[in-house]
Amino acid sequence: MKAIFKPIVLLFVVLLAISPIIVYCITLRRFGFAESSSDFGIFGDYIGGTIGTIVGAIGIYLVYITYTSQVKFARKQDEAMKRQQFETTFFSLLEQQQIIRSQLKGIIGDETYEGILYLQGLKSQLEDALSELNYIQDEVTEDNKVMLKNRVNGLYIDFFLPNVSNLGHYFRHLYHILKYIDDSQLSDSKKYADLLQSQLSNAELYMIAINGISNYGRKKMLPLMDKYGLLENYNANGDMLTVRLLSIFYKKTKNKYLMHKTGKIIFVGGVHGVGKSTFASMIKSRNSQIDSLSCSNIIKWENSAHKEVENVGETQNKLLRNLPYFIDQDKNYILDGHFCLLTEHGGIERVPIEVFETMSPSMIVVLKEDPNVICQRLNQRDSHNYSLELITEFQEKEIIYAKEVADTLGVPLEECNSTNRKNVILSVLGSF
User: Fold this and answer.
1) What is the structure's pLDDT at 261?
2) The CATH number fitting domain 265-431, selected from 3.40.50.300, 3.40.47.10, 3.30.565.10, 3.40.250.10
3) pTM of the model
């Protein structure tokens, strides 16, 4: 836009300056040239005045260009000076943080540890403290955020208070580094947060994450951590409790180790018997580089003929625990599963949204079919009779929730039926 502005201004100035000449020439053409030599003298004076105006206008424009260039140069110099001053302080703070870490020292068990080894030992202690939450895995959801906040805070306090003399200074200094980055208002401030992150071990990232959820860090530390993605590189190593806590409290952070790094997952959902396996096969037949996975196989249900589950939360925990072992980070996948599940009491329960957030699909496809057709397929395939009313309700809830999941994740949604299946397949293939 700025590159176009200057030529436009110059053109406007020139046109404005020569417009009197154009008008005068038109007048002469209309009424004829003067016969008296004195009239031509007047014309010469007019032209001279016009040229002077042009020169003056161009001079003003050149002064303007010079001024804007000087302002731009001054701004660059000022920004460079501010950046230099910022970096001097930043790297000094970063060095001081490393010194604080190296000076940490404490007794764990019967042994005395220092530095990073001490922090690794504290991480194990904190993990043990939070393991109590494993007994309520099915309650670790967004809907229970307030309860989780209080439970995590209570468990963390019991861990933190005996270690406050060591960890208090460490966390405060780390917060001030993040605050310093944020206050700089540099356009590329994220890269400095990334430099800070690169200096932190996995054990540190874990304790920082839990500290952020607690009362000690939730108001000030957590927003900055989430804003700059300080936990992007935390490796949960299959710890699904921590994964779910991060997905609930650090909404803006896209963790690189939750699932896949480079591969793409498209989630295909729908009720039992709607044709998910057939749809996946049709995708694979058109692109052999795409693999297909089934949630039911990953979970390893013992009896595939019965679709009811005893505990939806535990079933999905099993899925998330097992899925990373099936995912090749260099491949793309069609993953078929459900948005809702039938409970053993005949109810229909939604799969927690955190499950889909952890999967991080790039697209969602929900399949639809005539409920009568679905009932016939299930009766023939599983020798199990499902009522038309149940399948109809199941499918309606599946579609409604699929839309909510897609909206929450901010990913495209395709509703697929027998009439638009070819177009949806082309859309899916085009997304890889």
Assistant:
1) 43
2) 3.40.50.300
3) 0.56
